[in-house]
Amino acid sequence: MIKISQSMTEDHRCIDQVFVEMERAITKSEWEDAWLIADSFDEMMERHFSIEEDVLFPAIEDATASASGPVRVMTMEHDQIRYLVNVLRTAITEQSRDNGLSASETLLMMIQQHNSKEESVLYPMADRTVQTLEEEVSRRISEAS
Ligand SMILES: [Fe+2]
Ligand SMILES: [Fe+2]
Q1: Domains detected in the chain
Q2: What is the mean pLDDT of residues 39-57?
Q3: Which ligand is nearest to the CA of 119?
């Protein structure tokens, strides 16, 4: 059985790749591509967040009374990331290369910090405490790809 940390970390890497493509399109002012890629990026990100918010985080909180702090921080960061994705999409709609690049730089930093906290703290916690969800997590990830 694939561990939760492994499936979720691989999903981070897939989303990272799409981010790189999106940034490249913005850099080249290829707005139609940027728009389409931003759409898939948003969709992949929301699917990933929903696995965390609907399945993983509640299960971690149930299993470990002490986890509510980290889970609350991660959920708050999801909202900050969602906000930045909207800023970025607005820049793409307005075909503003400067705004697009500055939003994507902030977003990338935010995502990297967020992911590294999940990969070093939350996912290992999930591996230890909620093994019963391994199957559901890998199914929900593969359903979308
Ligand atoms: Fe997350
Ligand atoms: Fe994540």
Answers
A1: 4-144 (1.20.120.520)
A2: 96
A3: 2
